[in-house]
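We give its fold:
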Amino acid sequence: MGETVRTLRARRGMTRRMLAAEAGVSERHLANVESGIGNASILVLRQIAQALDCPLTGLIDSRSAASPEAALLHDLLRDRDEGDLHRARIALARLFGEPASAAARRTRIALIGLRGAGKSTLGKKLAGHLGVPFIELNREIQRIAGCSVTEIHALYGLAAYRRYERRALDDTIQRGQPAVIATPGGIVSDIATFNRLLDQCFTVWLRASPDEHMSRVLAQGDYRPMAGNAEAMDDLRRILAGRTAFYAKADIEFDTSGISVEESLAGLRAAIAEAMQRSESMVD
């Protein structure tokens, strides 16, 4: 990090004294940071980053300091709204990835959202209506790992689970067959895997109120959310708040709150049909 700060300072033609004054930190403190012995707080690092006109993460990512292209790209995207960033992401995905054709993408419907939204229940019924296989990604993860999801977390940790999750998604996509896929609620936590999902599947965010999420999970006999946790509802709301912006990247969203399974299925089918018809007309 010290080397990165020195590189960014040199690029801007600033002496250490100039940077210290601009950041509002002592020159001695800055010298310690640059030499790698300073124990700077996040607030101090943020002040230094602002003075260097770079994001805080840029201080610990040496590539942003060493690569002119990375710096130019960051500046190009700076202050863009969500619409512009969305278009940029799609363009970059097409440039560097292997995007599925629009037709192939529409044959794979992936349901995303928190547990209790209805992904498994509605996914099975939707697959039956469409006459395609229903794939529950957690079951594919367990098949690949040879043990339960709980055992994966206990024995190997979250990082291993995310690797199995990516492999299960890749295996499902590479089969090349139409399917309805129920994804784990946390699939949005791994950006690379979520990018892959958005690129290769028609995604539907199944949403519900936090109370309904919890009540449905408990109705299924799963008491893990409440086990030893008196603040389970607060935790669930925080998780939902933290993931909402990512879930919202789905092609469509459908709220299952307060309606029966039959009503949800009918509404979901109609919403998917309308969205796909709209996307086909745009392609044409």
Remarks:
- The chain has a mean pLDDT of 85.
- The chain has two domains: 2-77, 100-283.
